[in-house]
Design goal:
Mean pLDDT: 97
Number of strands: 16
Number of helices: 2
Strand content: over 45%
Structural class: mainly beta
Order of helices and strands: EEEEEHHEEEEEEEEEEE
Oligomer: single chain
Radius of gyration: 16 Å
Largest sheet: 14 strands, mixed
Number of domains: 1
Length: 211
């Protein structure tokens, strides 16, 4: 198994209500799961290959809860990545060289049966975890905007976060509101003002790196 590690910032959105029932081992709000995300790697490696400064994104959806499988997935990798970096990122995102159930990437790969050919395109990611704001753009594929949840009465920003000490994606994430617009044949029609979260990803072959 090739050793790898990434320290990244994640911007993610799904079609569920704020908070996302998946984070509590509950069923999706509307029965299905439809998700878009992007992450920017501050520091990372796969064996001898540096992943510093690279980005990746994903669209994924399931006809029911993720654990029931039959999902569909599309991976997008930064077109600035070299061939070695592309291969390295794809192995990480498809759950290769990863212990069973250790990362969100492994779980998504195991629960999808339709895996589209990976795209290599420019990816723009902006994220401020503290302010709960994020923006992911993959031209021709999708655009994701994330902003703070607003109080339904006062209109003021509402802050909430989730801590999952034994999770396989993050330990702490800021909750937000996200809207994803898809521009290809891979459609996410229900992600409008729905759950979003921003978090630091500290992952390796064995899962979350406990700091």
């Amino acid at each position: 198994m090739t050793p790898w590690e990434i320290h990244a910032v994640l911007v993610a959105n799904c079609n569920c209500a704020y908070g996302c029932p998946c984070q509590f081992d509950a069923l999706p709000t509307y029965g299905t799961c439809e998700a878009a995300d992007g992450f920017w790697i501050e520091k990372g490696f796969y064996g001898e290959v540096s992943l510093d400064g690279l980005s990746a994104g994903m669209l994924a959806k399931w006809p029911g809860p993720i654990h029931e499988g039959n999902g569909e997935r599309l991976i997008i990798i930064d077109d600035q990545a070299s061939l070695e970096q592309r291969n390295a990122l794809e192995k990480i995102i498809t759950g290769e060289d990863t212990e069973d159930l250790a990362t969100i990437f492994w779980v998504i790969n195991a629960m999808t049966s339709i895996r589209h050919e990976t795209l290599y395109l420019p990816i723009k990611i902006e994220a401020d975890i503290e302010l709960r704001k994020g923006h992911v753009v993959v031209d021709g594929v999708f655009e994701l905007n994330v902003e703070p949840i607003k109080n339904a009465v006062t209109g003021e920003e509402h802050r909430a976060r989730i801590e999952i000490p034994d999770g396989f994606e993050f330990t702490i994430a800021e909750m937000a509101s996200g809207t994803a617009k898809t521009h290809s044949s891979f459609k996410l029609p229900n992600n409008n003002g729905t759950h979003a979260h921003l978090a630091e990803l500290h992952l390796n072959n064995s899962g979350i790196i406990r700091l």
